[in-house]
Amino acid sequence: NAGVTQTPKFQVLKTGQSMTLQCAQDMNHNSMYWYRQDPGMGLRLIYYSASEGTTDKGEVPNGYNVSRLNKREFSLRLESAAPSQTSVYFCASTEGVGAISYEQYFGPGTRLTVT
Amino acid sequence: GESVGLHLPTLSVQEGDNSIINCAYSNSASDYFIWYKQESGKGPQFIIDIRSNMDKRQGQRVTVLLNKTVKHLSLQIAATQPGDSAVYFCAENPARVSGTYKYIFGTGTRLKVLA
Question: With 70 as the cut, is the pLDDT of residue B96 above it?
C-alpha cells in the first residue's frame, strides 16, 4: 500500500513550456486534491475532484488544468509555465463525504522551478 | 523542502521539555480540525484531529486543545524529541462543498528541538 504517489519529484521548466504532474492513490479514496506550497504560506488549493468524473476550481486555479483520469489518478497540467508557478506541488486524497475518516493523505510533493 | 520553512515563526525547545504550538483559525463554522507535521522535503503527515464537539483530544505524546470561543487550536507535544523537529500547521474544514471537504491551512510554525 503506497498511499499517494507523485511524479516527477523534481522538474525544471523554461517559461512557456508545458508539463503534467501525475498523482495516484491506492486507498480507494473518492476525493483528490492539488495544492501548491510557497515559502511562508500555507497550502493553497488549486483544483479538487470530489469524486471520479468531477473536478472543480480551488483558490488559485489560473494557469492550471486537471484531469481525473479514473478513481486512482488525478493529474495537474501547466499549459504554459510561468516563473510565478515555481512552487512545491502536493497531491492529496480523502475518503470523501460520508466516510468515517476526514483525514487527508498527502503525497511527497513535486518541486517545480520555472526559469 | 527547507524553502517552505522560510519566514515561519520558530519555537525552540530543549529535548525532553513539552512543546506548545498555537494556531488561530478563521471560520467559526469550521467543524473539524487537523494538525500536520511536515519534515524537510516531505509531504504533510497527519498527527491528530479534533471535531468541534470536543475541546480536547489526546494521542500518543500529543494533545490538541480547541477553544471555539476565541477560534484557537493548540498542539501540545510531551517530552519533545529530536525527531519532532519539523514544521507544524493546522487545517480547518469550514464546510462540505460539492460533495467533499475543502480545508484551509495555516502557515505553520517551525519547531526546533535543542539537544
Answer: no
